[in-house]
Each structure stands twice: as structure tokens, then as C-alpha cells.
């Protein structure tokens, strides 16, 4: 813990490394977003909402979760961080420190009991998701522009990662989309098996 605090204190005030600059993070995010966008062409409407098991998410629900989390949660945290300096001296948790040191979330499956608050609804159609993606792309570009110019140093606590600043919340969106590629791979394998038993 002492080593963690020493690292955080000695890095304070320095510009972010190149891979944590808004423009680099945006380029990385656009690449993974395109992966999800292009994959929409590979699903049938019935397969898009088919659940691998009772209580498990369909691939359509994963899309709803990713886009909804970015728009209604992560992007709002960025705006809040940039609006002031609250908790500017607060730190990430050990899990948060490790996640950002590695540049991604650990490959651990997180099981959350189904609930109306957390479980995403089934999408209306594949076209619904296709129409949601361009708006998210625009919002991310706008956020990157804000991050390049804003001076707010506030931080907001993440339930697992501790206090994150605006740039770290921005990076988390890309990490989140990449983290769920593993789930996408499992669901895609299930759907192929259903098509070719």
C-alpha cells in the first residue's frame, strides 16, 4: 500500500502518458466500437435475443448494457469530474490501481443477481442498436474534446476501483467494451452451436 501511495504521489501533476491522452483513448475506443458495430451483421433477430441459459444475457442485452452504461453512467461521471475539484486528492483502490496499470480489466466473470436495476432489457431489434452507436461515437468525440481543454481535477468514486478522475472514467469506457468481448465470444459460440448442432 505504501508503494502504491508513493507511486500515485510522485505521478501527481505530470501529464498523462501517450496511451492515456484523450486522442489516443478515443482512437482505441473507436476501434473496439467498430468491432461491436460490424458484428451486428452476423446476428439474426432471433439469435440476437436468445439467452444461453436462464438468467444469462443475450448478446442484445450485452449491447444495451454497454451503450447504456457509457451514456447514462460513465459519461456523466466525466462531466461531474470536470465541473470542480472535489476529492482531487483521493486515491484509487488497489483493484483500480492494478486495472489502470495493466490497461484493462482482469478477465474475471462478474455474476450479479438479476434485478430490474441492473439487468438490461432485451433490445427491440438489431436496427435499434445500429441506430444507437453513431450517437455514442459522437458523444465520445465530444468528451475527448472536453478532456483536452478542461481543467477540472475532481474525482468520483467507482464501486470497485476507488476515486477516478475524468480521464480515467473516459478510459474505463474502452476497457468496459473490451472486457465484454470475452462474454461476446462465449455467446457467439453458443449461437453457432444452436445453428449447427
Overview in brief:
The chain is mostly helical.
Pick out its properties.
single chain, 60% helix, 2 strands, disordered N terminus, 197 residues, Four Helix Bundle (Hemerythrin (Met), subunit A), mainly alpha
Q: Would you identify the regions where 5 or more consecutive residues have pLDDT less than 50? A: 1-15
C-alpha-based Rg, rounded: 18 Å
Strand content: under 5%
DSSP helix count?
8
Tell me what you see in this structure:
The chain is mainly α and 197 residues long. The chain has a single domain (18-106, 121-195), classed as Up-down Bundle (Four Helix Bundle (Hemerythrin (Met), subunit A)). 60% of the residues lie in helices and 4% in strands. It has a two-stranded antiparallel sheet. Helix 2 packs parallel to helix 7, helix 4 packs parallel to helix 6 (126-149) and helix 4 runs antiparallel to helix 7 (166-179). The longest helix is centred in the middle third of the chain and has 24 residues, at 59-82. The chain is globular and about 55 Å long. The termini are far apart. Mean pLDDT is 88; it is low at 1-15.
